[in-house]
Amino acid sequence: MSLTEKFVDKIYHATPDGEAIECAKLGVLDYLTSSYAGKDDAGVHKLLKLIELEGGFQVSPIIGQGRKSTPLQSALVNGFLAHALDFDDVHTEVRGHPSAVLLSTLLALASTNDVTGKRFLEAYVVGVEVMARIARAVKDSHYEKGWHNTGTIGVLAAALAGGYMLQFSRDQLAQALGFAATQSSGLRCHFGTETKPLHAGLAARAAVLSVNLTMVNFVNNSNSFDGKGNYFEVYGEGTENYSSTLLDGWNDSWKIASPGLWFKIYPFCSAAYFGADAALRIGKLNVEDIQEIIITFSNNTDAALIHHNPKTGEQGRFSIEYIVSLILQGQPLEFKQFEGSPIDSVSQTIINKTVRQNVKEPSTVPRYTKVKIVFKNGDMIEETSTTPKGSPNNKVTKQEIIEKCKSILKNEELEEKWMESIFTLNDATDLSDLLCLI
C-alpha cells in the first residue's frame, strides 16, 4: 500500500472515543461563539454582497445573519466569520486554526446530506487529528517559509473530515484528499488584513468542492502523498519518511483532547498570549519612566507576529509590541482595540521603545516569552510566561467557554437553545435543530 492508501485507511477505521466527543462539543460551542462575535465585521458584509451577486440555491445557513446560501458560499463566509476577529481556537501542533475550517466545511455539507449528530462530531475529531498530523509532518519550516497552515493544511483535513462524515470509501477519501491537496494555499504575508481570515473561508469552500468533486467521480491522482512532486515534497522538507507521524497511534488518543484545542480569551493571535501574560503580571506603568522594553521569544515562536510596528489595531492582532503597549497603559484587551483605527500616539511611543529578540533553546525547554522593562533610573522588571490561559497546560474550562458564549450572545433564550442543542448533539438523529439555531 502507498502512504496515501495507508493514511486514508486509518481515517476510514477511525473511532473517536467519548472524551474526544466531549471535547468536540466544546469546540462547536466556541466556534459558533467566535463566529457570532464577528457577524458585523466589515469583511463579512463584503462577502455577503458578493454572494448576493452570485445567487444560488439557498440551503446552508450563514452564522448570525438569519439567511442561507449555497453550501460553497456558506463554507466561505462561515470560515471567514469564525476567524474574522482571531477569537477562534488554535491547536499547538497544527500551528493554526482547526475549527474555523473544519466546522464551516462540515456544517455546509450537513445542510444537504443526512448526517447524525454523532457522526458530525466524530468527523470533527478526525479532522483535528488529520490537521495536526499533517502539520507535524510538514514541520515548522512549512509555516516559517510563509505558509498559513490554517489554509494550506486545513483544506486537506476538512476534505477528509467531510468524506469521513459522509462515509466515503477508502478510494473516495483518497480522491477527496487529492482535490484538496491541489487547492492548498494561504500566505502569512496577509496577516493583519481581511485576507488572513479569508484563508479559513477559502479552505472550507475548497474542501466542500473537493468532497463534491469526489461524489460526481471527477478524476485526479489518488496518491497525493506519494511519488515525485507529492504534497510533502512540495510543501514540506521533502526528504524524510513521514509514515510514523501520519500513521502511528490512531485511536489510542486524540489530538482534540491531548494536547487539545486552545480556546481564546482575547481577540488576538495566540503567539502573543505568552508575552501578554508576562506583561499582565507587570501591569500598568508610567510610560514616561520607561527606557526600553525587551521581549524575548524562544525558538522563533513569534513567527506569526509579523507586525513589529503596526499601523492599525487590525495589524496589532499580530504585534506583541502593540499588545504589550496596551497592557502597560492599563487598557483592556477588547475587540475595539483591534479594529482598523490607526495606532494612538501613546501606544506608538511605547512601541518605539520595544525591542524583540529570539533565543534558540533545546527542545526540552518549555516554550516561553519574557518581557523585560528597563527604566530610565536603571531599575528593571522582568516576567516570563510558559502557560498563558487557554494554552494546553492552562486550559479554559467548560464553564469559562459557556461564559464566553454568554458574553457574546447576550440573549438568554438563544444561549439555552445553543447549549441544549450542542451538548446533546451526539444523540441527535440529524443536524436540523443546530442548523436552524445558527
From TrEMBL:
Residues 266-410 form the MmgE/PrpD C-terminal domain. GO terms for molecular function: lyase activity. InterPro entries: MmgE/PrpD_sf, MmgE/PrpD_sf_1, MmgE/PrpD_sf_2, MmgE_PrpD, MmgE_PrpD_C, MmgE_PrpD_N. It holds the Pfam family MmgE_PrpD_N. It comes from the Bacteria. Residues 7-239 form the MmgE/PrpD N-terminal domain. Belongs to the PrpD family. This is 2-methylcitrate dehydratase. It comes from Ureibacillus massiliensis 4400831 = CIP 108448 = CCUG 49529.
